[in-house]
Amino acid sequence: MSQRSPLPAPALRIVDLIAQRKLSAVFQPIVDFEAGAILGYEGLIRGPAGTALETPYALFAQAAAEGSVIALERAAACTCIEAFAQLACEGKLFLNFSAGGIRQLADDRDGTFVMLRDLGVDAERIVIELTEQSAIPDVASFLPAISVLRTAGAQFALDDYGTANASMNLWVRLKPDMVKLDRFFIHDIASDPLKFEAVKAMQHFAAASGARLVAEGIENEADLIVVRDMGITCGQGYFFGKPLAQPPRAVPDAAREALRAGHIAVFPEATRTVSASPSGGMASAKMVVHAPALPREATNNDVLELFNRLPNLHAVAVVEHDVPIALINRRAFMDRYALPYHRELFGKRPCMLFANASPVVIEKSMTVEDMAKLLASDDQRYLADGFVITDEGKYVGLGTGESLVRAVTEVRIEAARYANPLTFLPGNIPISSHITRLLGHDAGFCACYVDLNHFKPFNDQYGYWQGDEVLKFAAHVLAQVCDPTRDFLGHVGGDDFLILFQSDDWHERAQRAIQLFNDGAQRFYAPGDRLAGGIHGEDRRGNPTFFGFVTMAIGCVHVLPQTGDAMYSSEDIASVAALAKRRAKSEPFGLVLVEFEESQALLQGRTSAALID
Question: What residue numbers bound the domain in which 310 lies?
Fold first, then answer.
């Protein structure tokens, strides 16, 4: 007889696990940041240890296959409630349910709340979380179930907001008491500007709707402090504790210290390039000249009449079905018409005779980067003729070469206020905003103004391209010595940088920056200049002068938490730091600290000085 393969062991069924009470509960703490205490626990279910159904994912996948998801949800909730009552944990208990599970829970509200009462858990301590697994096709019919639970005293929360079926639509219509932000948005938020902006938008809506946010997935101090400083008041994650059968009763020391940390978070800045600053549409709107156009059938006499009627009009567009097909420059046309007999010969002829049939056309939505490329292109007809501005191909108006240059320049200047286009470091507006945050939170810090000695002679000698490389090297060195979670680095402009240190060892960091830069900057010089120790040039008065290597100078001022009536602004702080920088430039080691007492006198106007060279 041939041997037969052994039959597979029968698979565990969810109904059997429920009947045999083989489900167990674990709890993960949810922390109230303001109180520095545990607000409650999320109850989570586990299957038999060591089996294929130990994890919640496997349990619910099997339940879905068996058609017993709601039964499993209810059994999980009962298991969690019983274990929670036996542990005598304080705070709220968060329980997960699908929309169908919530409907059934509401239908059997009497039995549910009798069980709660028998176990000694008040309904007011229960938070029902709507999970994201299933959509709700008819939200209106779902609202009564939420109302029943709220009437009994339970609270309602949206779970894993930002993924799957957890949508803005549900937030608006269900008006949850709490919204739990999915861990995707919280993990690494300290270094991800897009996640930061997304959560900030959710926070604004939460403030408007009255919902309390819970940040899920907090796993380190940096993310916690960013979330804390954004104003989110609750969090959950491994930094506070993993799901355990015996959960912690107090916030861990590391998390408590982070919540009480005196420094504020450095929010991740989304780099604003020219194309990310005010849009091309805004730039086009600034330079558009709303001018009448002429049809293809118009004559040269019509053009002459229009120019005589509108003496400031530099050109006229020729259109067909609102689409520009040509451009007639005023000066070229009038010069031609001034020639003898030209009006008699050509006045009744079609205007296309003297028109430029391939004008420069700028679409209203064109990015500023593309406009800048136009400025640098070989086709410079726009300087004399101007150009046509369209909106989805339809004629809108005219522009001049001067207005194009001005619009691109203004947008670039505005962009540089947010981020320096060379180093991509935050510009003046983010710098001022961070100083204001520091002052508003009474956070002590050290403002350090950084400048490069002999940079202008170097730039004159080697050219702006090599000068830009030195500036990028300086930015790299400064970023290298900063703690990105505590220290804010900005680029004021040119060779001026500002660091707002919250690191306790800021002095050593500043010294290291000076040493690293001074040692590395010499590689930007030609070998002969390196041997000579610098370059020959002229000072500001035109006198021949020898300039040593480019070096770094840092002027620092301690800013202590404000007390009494002393109120300082970001401009005050920058001004005092700039004074310290001037002193540092004359020091052999390039590092100067202005004591707080002196800076306080300056800020209150008791000392006058020229602050910025």
Answer: 275-411
